[in-house]
Write a structure and sequence with these properties.
6-stranded antiparallel β-sheet; 17 strands; disordered N terminus; Protein FAR1-RELATED SEQUENCE
Length: 667
């Protein structure tokens, strides 16, 4: 009998008689003979995860095993008398030992009795829940191993419809199952029933405040979207009394966009901090036109660590465990704690625009407020080195005697997450504003105001998404078909006019123009192939003053680095680096400084050709999805009566014959 893992839920077997099947034969009913699992699924299995089918559990664990370098086999499957499966155990392919053979030349033992495994069980809600997990192996496993395991040669039917992409498109292909539940505490059960909501509870921040009709609107919203979009994903969190607490949802287009623009994301919690009627949290990225694009949406009960952890885990699970390089958040201790727990490998930055918006509220009551505000702003925006920032900050604190101000103390403690001088080594893709005039917009700004109700927002959600993707498609067309008047004779300006989108090229041209305000480029040292320069530039605020910027150039590998840090901030080279390249006779910008995320010719799978009735007929994914939606509508109409059913079957037969005839004529 299997030992009981400490990381397990209690198991209550049914009283009915059952039988057990050992070994890999239990999988023959659905394991295919061709195809290789594509994509990756680094999310480890955990007690409490739920899946729609037995096959989904196998597919999930097999994907995890492929990434981590081991194979999977079915150790046990339990059946009831009705031959219905109700429990299973998947193990590492090195589990157990082979039976001794009496052959003259028995095969060598390859198994090690490895304990790594998962156990899962069919629950009352007809979902399969992982009830026991052991992740440790007693042998070496390596993700880079070239060993080809038998279990990796199938794509389970549990993946209802894998997202078929063109061969040259780099995108995750593993389908994440709609009902995967990750409990942030791992010590209590979540029994989710998407069709039942209760909205009365006395505990603060422990449930969503829903008005009459909101629960039904939310349920209809999810079911309608899933009906027409098979890749729509949602998950809900109920509190201990069964009341709806948190919700997360995403679409296939969100995951596709994340594969292109997921290096830097912003978590927009403005609806929580400004007390909107809809407690919406939007996880967003920025596309190659500088437009905000949604990557995930959630409704949460309150700004608590628990809710943020649940939301981030749900989002990360949907994104198949791939964390972003950088996360931008509002000033929130709860969110910072949640990110440290769920996304420890991602750099997190606090939105500078959010901080500046809070200045009147936090400092407005101080004596000499305007003078303090000016000193505060100068320390942030006019410091190019850490020493300058620290000196200016200390001078402000001492001169105005505000060392004990709690908000300023908190800001200074967090300065490495928001002060521009500390963020020069963090890639931000232009998503952190460094000027007072810039504003960070949410994808849903135009459709969501303080008093917008949940029902109104849900009704306008699809229209909002259409406008977001239409705006992106139109910007694509404009960038492809427009030409710019060059502002210099530098060849690299012409070079990037052919590569960058209009929005990014216009920002780059500001740096090209800025080269003319750089007074001199002086070499100060040389160490082998590494040369250091000082570029002197006129101050923007005071043309009578100049500032020095240190730029290093490695001529052997064409690497250039400026102390201003603009490349990491915006994603293109600054005027100081351009001056150094120009002085060293570089006609073109080195390719490593031309990011693919800004290119006008980047082809995204989620953007349609809007000249074809909103369907890109060249893309098989779009053809499939559109036909699927039409077929679902037809099925819904055909099932309403026996007459409609017969008529629909006949009509479908005629259509199939016509399609086949069309194929024959084409041949």
């Amino acid at each position: 009998m299997d030992g009981l893992s400490l990381n397990a839920e209690p198991i209550f077997d049914d009283e009915t008689e059952e039988f057990e099947i050992d070994g890999e034969c239990a999988m023959t009913e659905y394991v295919g003979q061709s195809g290789i699992i594509e994509g990756e699924n680094p999310v480890p299995p955990a007690v409490g995860m739920e899946f729609e089918t037995y096959e989904d559990v196998y597919y999930f664990y097999n994907c995890y095993a492929k990434v981590h370098g081991f194979g999977v086999r079915v150790s046990n499957t339990w059946y009831r008398k009705s031959r219905e499966r109700y429990r299973g155990k998947l193990s590492c392919s090195s589990a157990g030992f082979k039976k001794k053979s009496e052959a003259n030349r028995p095969r060598p033992e390859t198994r090690t009795g490895c304990p790594a495994m998962i156990k899962f069980r069919l629950m009352e809600n007809k979902r399969w829940r992982i009830i026991e997990v052991e992740l440790e192996h007693n042998h070496l496993v390596s993700p880079s191993t070239e060993k080809f395991y038998k279990s990796h040669r199938n794509i389970s039917s549990g993946s209802k419809r894998s997202l078929q992409m063109d061969a040259n498109q780099d995108i995750q292909k593993i389908r994440l199952f709609r009902t995967v539940i990750i409990d942030p505490d791992d010590d209590r059960k979540l029994n989710i029933d998407e069709g039942e909501f209760r909205n009365t509870i006395d505990q603060t921040n422990n449930h969503l405040i829903l008005k009459p009709g909101d629960a039904q609107a939310l349920h209809s919203f999810f079911t309608d979207l899933q009906l027409v979009n098979p890749d729509f994903f949602y998950v809900m969190d109920l509190n201990e009394k069964g009341c709806l607490r948190n919700v997360f949802w995403a679409e296939a287009r969100f995951k596709a966009a994340y594969s292109y623009f997921g290096d830097v994301v912003r978590i927009d919690t403005a609806c929580l901090t400004t007390k909107y009627e809809v407690p919406l949290v939007v996880i967003a990225g920025v596309n190659h036109h500088g437009q905000s694009v949604p990557l995930g949406c959630g409704l949460i009960a309150g700004e608590t660590v628990e809710s943020f952890i649940w939301l981030l885990r749900a989002w990360l699970t949907y994104m198949v465990g791939r964390p972003p390089q950088t996360i931008i958040i509002a000033q929130s201790r709860a969110m910072q704690t949640a990110i440290a727990d769920v996304l420890p490998r991602s750099a997190h930055c606090i939105s500078l625009s959010h901080i500046m918006k809070k200045v009147p509220e936090e400092l407005g009551g101080l004596h000499e407020y305007e003078v303090i505000k000016k000193a505060f702003t100068k320390a942030i925006y006019q410091s190019s080195r850490i020493e300058e920032f620290e000196a200016a900050w200390e001078d402000m604190i001492l001169h105005h005697r505000i060392r004990d101000h709690k908000w300023l103390q908190t800001l200074h403690d967090d300065r490495k997450h928001w002060a521009p001088v500390y963020l020069k080594d963090t890639f931000l893709a232009g998503m952190v504003s460094v000027t007072l005039s810039e504003r960070e917009a949410s994808p849903f700004d135009e459709y969501l105001a303080n008093h917008t109700s949940l029902k109104v927002f849900l009704n306008s959600y699809n229209q909002c998404l259409k406008e977001i993707y239409l705006r992106e498609a139109l910007a694509d067309t404009e960038s492809r078909n427009s030409s710019f008047m060059l502002k210099s004779r530098f060849y690299f300006e012409m070079q990037l006019s052919k590569v960058y989108t209009n929005h990014i090229f216009e920002k780059f041209q500001i740096e090209v123009e800025g080269m003319f305000s750089c007074l001199s480029t002086r070499q100060v040292s040389i160490d082998g192939s590494v040369v250091t320069y000082i570029v002197k530039e006129h101050e923007v605020e005071n043309v009578n003053e100049a500032r020095d910027y240190e730029v290093t150039l490695n001529t052997a590998v064409a690497e250039v680095l400026c102390a201003c840090g603009l490349f990491n901030l915006e994603g293109f080279l600054c005027r100081h680096a351009l001056c150094v390249l120009s002085q060293n006779s570089f006609e073109e910008i080195p390719p490593q400084y031309i990011l693919s995320r800004w290119r006008k010719d980047i082809h995204r799978s989620y953007i349609l050709d809007y000249g074809c009735n909103l369907i890109d007929t060249k893309n098989p994914v779009h053809r499939y999805d559109n036909l699927y939606k039409c077929a679902v509508k037809l099925v819904e109409e055909g099932r309403k009566s026996r007459e409609r059913y017969k008529f629909t079957l006949e009509a479908l037969g005629e259509i199939l014959n016509k399609v086949s005839l069309q194929d024959h004529n084409t041949l």
